[in-house]
Amino acid sequence: MQKVPPTYKFGVLCQRFILPRWQAMAIEALLNDGHLPVVVVVGDIPLKTTLKQKIKKYLGKNALYHLFERCVMQLPEKEWINAESLFKESRVIQAKVYKKGKSNYFAETTIQQIKATNPDFLLRFGFDIIRGAILEAAPWGVWSYHHDDELKYRGGPPAFWEIALGDPVTGVMLQRLTDRLDGGIVLKKGYFKTIDHSYSGNLNRVLKEAAHWPARVCKEGPELGHEPAPAIAPLFKKPTNFRMVAFLLRKTVNRMKFHFQDLFMAEKWRIALLKNDPTSPFSLPGIGNFSFFPLPSPPQNHFYADPFIICESDTIHILCEDYNYATAKGSIVYFCYRMDSLKIKMKTIALESRSHLAYPFMFAQDGTIYCIPETADTGNISLYRLNTTTGKLQFVRHLVPGFAGVDSTIIFHEQHWWIFSTCRSSSNESLYIFYSDSLDGNFSAHAANPVKIDIRGARPAGNIFLSEGLLIRPAQMNAGKYGASIALFVIDTLSPDRFVEHKVSDLMPFPHKGYSKGLHTLSVDHGFAVVDGKTYGFNRHYFKHHLRQKIRIEKTKK
After folding, report:
1. Looking at the DSSP assignment, which residues form a beta bridge with residue 312?
2. What structural domains does the chain harbor?
3. What per-residue confidence (pLDDT) applies to 556?
């Protein structure tokens, strides 16, 4: 039985009731979970810009950045929203604030007024840098966002320097502020793929994706904060005009590359079998030394990817995705091989649907082979049974109805079945876990879902397996390019309310022809494994499909 998460009282430091959309979303997420906004603190810091400040802003050394921000950037998440209706039950306090250097300090009278409302924590959505006794005005302090990886970038602008410096990953942190600048206690962190051809897109995404984090931290337990973030990163400021010119040139080149690759560089995945071979110099966890055997090439305008393997007696069963560029959807294909000779016994289409199918995760239980194919388009995680006589998959039941799972992977561990999956809305970054004590029972959501937000290792990449007593979870490394490589993680803690893992190694693409540009699936069983690899090339169906998408997007903008 799942625990009912407690509810908390919170306050908001926001200077005024007009808030950016993403901040209003953060407050709404807290309200939807039953948390109560007991106090809102509005400020007496002047918000209007003087003429002198405007001249300096648009004619000074950062003028190009400010003009770009004002005239070019389109940020739905920074659209101003009247949030006064969110604070119907809140006490409104007019803050008394004084400035000391670059920091703002709250007057003792204001702090006492805040304490009188007994908030559990405060959200900082204004007042810039704050220090002093306000940081201890609530038991769990003042929470604040930093929309960058604090280990690489201090200062700002948010989500900007990742593009300017070619960093494929953009970090976000929700922290509890301390009196030490850039030394807050980390409450939640996440890492997203940098949208390097659009600053608006990159910033808007991280604002939106992290908006619900205060509500998530309340479910996980605000007292579970990590160590203070070390202030070791260089301090960044708004770019000078010269630096802004370089940024705009880089962004333009990135946009040209993006559209070229999106039209002309179709992925061509294929699959291979690895067999344990003590004489081979190549080695992998879970299989040891191995020899590499390419499996049959896909038909024209198709690719094979996401292979899974089950070894049974003298037979090797393999399921994989068969993607058709002409229809822009995948089906599931079945291969059956003799284990001794590696000669094919059967090949057939195991499952077809009007919707896209992929990642046919396969596992054996009580003499039956099951499969959980990706059926995100149906909005469910579903279980199928493999008929090894016909090579067909037969529907059994929905394991997690109403969840559009991507690359769902299941394991039986410590008397529970555990499903690891990402979701369609954030398929490469957010890892979710569901658990049940029976394959026939209801699956409950992990208390900390999403348990991990990281483009560098959230999305599953094959079956979880034991190697030298360690539970190894393969995950996709999708920073930079999709399906670039696989990261291997050791699962340290797995329970209904906790999940901890650490990275141990990377698996890079195989050097063989046709496999060297990517790797995103590894399935291991009894001395064998199957993997995939890719190259790139032109495909007319891919070109037409993506061109139509771009035309539709442009039409919706008008």
Report:
1. 315
2. 9-257 (3.40.50.170), 269-537 (2.115.10.20)
3. 63
